[in-house]
Predict the 3D structure of the following.
Amino acid sequence: MDTAICGRLAPSPLLHSNSGDKFLLHKQSTKWITVMTMAPPRLEKGGGVLDKPVIEKTTPGRESEFDLKKSKKMSPPYRVMLHNDNYNKREYVVQVLMKVIPGMTVDNAVNIMQEAHINGLSVVIVCGQPDAEEHCTQLRGNGLLSSIEPDSGGC
């Protein structure tokens, strides 16, 4: 067992610790010292003591993080539309799509750019209205023509 000493006095040779003792007090020169014996940590497979889970308590008028995520998922879906223009180079459009839209791959960005170039319009992403507005604003901020519209669920 390891021994930790709490106090300013060093342990005297008269201080004994039995293996079953958790705390041992010894009087020396009218001052008390405390000796704690601790078992070394065990490195075993299997279960251990888990910390008590923290339960988030919400105050009135404030939604929890779970409720905010749930409300985002339940908001009606909107399409972010990319319009063709004659000003931006194709490579630039691909770069902006990859920068603005999370998880956008090069292949998807090229396909979206090609569709907008050929058909004049392409769906970039379908998401909730707040996210769609943010993506549209960022695309416009980078010089691309974009808009949003409610997703009807059809083709």
Summary: The CA atoms of residues 106 and 131 lie 21 Å apart. Strands lie at 2-6, 23-28, 31-38, 77-83, 121-128, 145-150. The longest strand covers residues 31-38. The helical segments are 65-74, 90-100, 106-119, 129-141.
